[in-house]
Request: fold
Amino acid sequence: MRTLNRNYTGRKLNRVKRRRGAIIVLIAVCLTLILAFVAISIDGGGLLEDRRQSQATADAAALAAAGELFVNYTKNKGVDTGSNAAANGYSNDGKKSIVTVRTSPQLYMGGPNKDTAIPKGFVEVTVQYNQPRYFSAVIGSGDIPVSARAVARGKWEPSMVGIHVLDLHQKGSLNATGTAVVNVTGGAKVIVNSDDPSAAITNGGTITAPEIDITGGDSVTGGKGGFYGGVNLGTPPQPDPLRAIPEPDMLSMVEQSKNKTQFSNGNHTLYPGVYHGGISISGKGSVTMMPGIYYMDGGGFSMSGQGNMYAAGVMIFNAPQSNSDSISITGSDSGSIYMTPPTDGIYQGMTLFQERNATPTLTVSGGGNVYMTGTFYAANALMKLSGGGAGHVGSQFISRYLELGGNGALNIDYDPNQAQPRRVLGLVE
Reply:
């Protein structure tokens, strides 16, 4: 019995010793795994932070490059012609960080538009950051690449809007009176943002367009008047398509006059720049305006009488100092008015531009000897337009309120080459 007890005790001790050795090995293995998980957690957190930074860098770089494409769009038509858009101030050493920019007509690198040619005005930026290993070196070697991608668009495109009335609540914010016959052509539509039940009114006049979108309702009075075309009531109001166009900087322009420029006879030539006190042409006075931007620092701009005005490639900007500092251009049967907007630059297609917060009324009256194209823009003011005979007045009208009158045809022939395009700038992927 004693022998059996000793043997049993020895076997028991041996088993206990073997168990203790197994635990040590198990602990060592577990510690290795724990360290590996800790390494992955720490380096993984760094990778997530680097991923956010890389994406932010790619987004910013794409937007900056798209902004450069936008600024030069009228000149280069959305194609990068060797500018520094690719750099944008970000590190690109080819080792630790790699920034790649692709613009028209190169190819997308990936994404939903993989292997598709990039349209003009688009830019793609990829950023790769090679993060060094720290704790994860216990399970691998070499840097860990982190990449991000962004695609932005920077271009101008036609708004396809002939008339846009911006006020949100006014009754009769669009009002056609008399026997005015308004025809909006060129595939452009009419937009009225007011939600009043009588937001758009015709009182004897007619408005015809391929599409007429009214947030509120319409009202037809005066017998033969009406709206013709695709009339849609209850449509959501649309934002000002020209809200991103900057106002000219007076300080960067040449001063042409310290006091009001006015004449009532003779032939005169004017040059672009700042006119303190504005410009007034009346009687038999005639003027040739050289191409460029004319800044009315108070005083407004007026043209009336029997004289002629020739202004090709001209934009008039009105910065009123009182309600009487308005824009008024009135044609006559004995004189002629010819006016077209700039053909390039940030104000391409803009003929008349009133300071956005200004309220003086903008008045344009056309007759048979009036030919004016381009965009007429007064975001916070009433605009009064009247036509007659074979005259041509404007390509696009955007204002807070719009009154259409006269006793003849008023043809609004929208032409994307003769109207201010809208800005399209932002991330798309």
Summary: The CA atoms of residues 154 and 425 lie 4 Å apart. The mean pLDDT is 80. The helical segments are 2-71, 73-76.
